[in-house]
Amino acid sequence: MIPLTPLEILVDNDCGIDLPLPDDLKTLYGRLQFPPFGGRPQVISNFVTTLDGVVSLGVDGKSNGDEISGSNRHDSMVMALLRAAADAVLIGAGTLRQSPHHVWTPEFVFPSLEGSYRTLRARMGKQKPPMCVVVSAGGTLDLALPVFTAGKAPVAIITTAIGEKEIRKESVPPAVQVIPAGDRETLTIGEILDALLRLLPGGNIFLVEGGPHLIGQFFDQGELDELFLTLSPRIAGRDSHSQRLGLVAGRVFLPERLLTGRLNGLRKSESHLFLRYAFKGG
Ligand SMILES: NC(=O)c1ccc[n+]([C@@H]2O[C@H](COP(=O)([O-])OP(=O)(O)OC[C@H]3O[C@@H](n4cnc5c(N)ncnc54)[C@H](OP(=O)(O)O)[C@@H]3O)[C@@H](O)[C@H]2O)c1
Q: How confident is the model at residue 2 (pLDDT cuts 50, 70, 90)?
């Protein structure tokens, strides 16, 4: 396979402390900085959208990020890098249902750099792969999927009291932690983050990989620090028959409350752009 070329760095604002990237990752990505660890964890997100803002084609078997990015290898490398830096990778149950065979580890999306991602984690003092955390209200989940059974990473389900009952109707694989985090129909983002902090008390970086319904609530409740967004040079289109989700679903921000990000980074590989926006702080 042709080796990846380094991303071209167009904007790279000072964001704090350099993560201890091994040389090959540093050459490919450049420096990756976060505010000094020790306070509340950084909540970041990573998505890929088309030029017209579509994140999912809404076509069975063709609704994940690969279709959007065109299986772009730089996008996979960045996705894996962010996973490698994170203590937890959070996904909504909808994303799991559309990618049932996925496992949310760095090496699953970029196997050839597995050793370097491991080195980064070891240098950050992280002994295990990032925990995959599935968020579900109703608890209707297929517990036989690889994310729950393959043993590639610690895994937890954060759910409601009703969701927990539903999950426990099936036999729960021993490695899966089921965490009831609230008594109402759905959880608040505060409840989800509190549960995450109980699971990972020393956690520094929580990565939310979507989908649009879950991330919409993080935006709405002001709990997202930064968005890493790959802009793919594709146009997907929408019409009244096809449900094609944009970055945010289930939430609408009024004209006087449109959220505004601050550009912290811009990298490029051919026609793909890799954006980093801050939504909190400063
Ligand atoms: N292009 C990209 O970068 C990207 C990234 C991620 C996902 N996607 C795509 O986006 C699509 C899925 O997105 P989606 O918006 O439909 O689904 P989603 O946000 O992944 O999941 C929604 C589900 O998560 C659970 N959930 C969300 N908020 C909750 C809360 N506050 N409390 C409790 N449970 C909560 C519920 O699960 P229950 O139904 O179990 O109650 C809900 O139905 C897929 O096609 C996926 O491939 C694309």
A: confident
Distance 216 CA to ligand 1 centre (A): 10
Residue at 268 is within a domain: no
**What is the tally of structural domains in the chain?**
1
Instruction: Identify the residue whose C-alpha is closest to ligand 1 atom 38.
Output: 136
How far apart CA 191 and CA 169 sit, in angstroms, is 24
**Ligand 1: nearest atom to the Cα of 57:** 45
Q: Is the CB of 95 under 6 A from ligand 1?
A: yes
| Within a domain: 137 | yes
Does ligand 1 lie within 6 Å of residue 138's CB atom? Answer: yes
Which residues contact residue 50 at a Cβ distance below 8 angstroms, ignoring those fewer than 6 apart? 68, 232, 234, 235, 236
Q: Where are the alpha helices (DSSP H) in the chain?
A: 23-29, 65-69, 73-85, 93-98, 106-109, 114-123, 146-149, 161-167, 189-199, 212-220
Is the shortest distance between the CB of 217 and ligand 1 below 6 Å?
Answer: yes
Reported as a single tens digit per residue, the pLDDT across 213-226 is 999 999 999 999 99
Structural domain that includes position 97 = 40-232
Tell me, yes or no, whether 112 lies in a domain.
Answer: yes
Q: In angstroms, what is the span from residue 119 Cα to ligand 1's centroid? A: 31
> Given pLDDT bands bounded at 50, 70 and 90, which one contains residue 76?
very high
| Secondary structure element (H or E) that encloses residue 6, with its range | none
In a domain, 94, yes or no: yes
Over the stretch 261-279, which tens digit does the pLDDT of each residue have? 999 999 999 999 999 999 9
Among protein residues, the one whose CA lies closest to atom 3 of ligand 1: 47
Give the residue, by CA position, lying nearest to ligand 1 atom 37. Answer: 136
Domain with residue 115: its CATH number is 3.40.430.10
Query: pTM, whole model, 2 decimals?
Result: 0.98
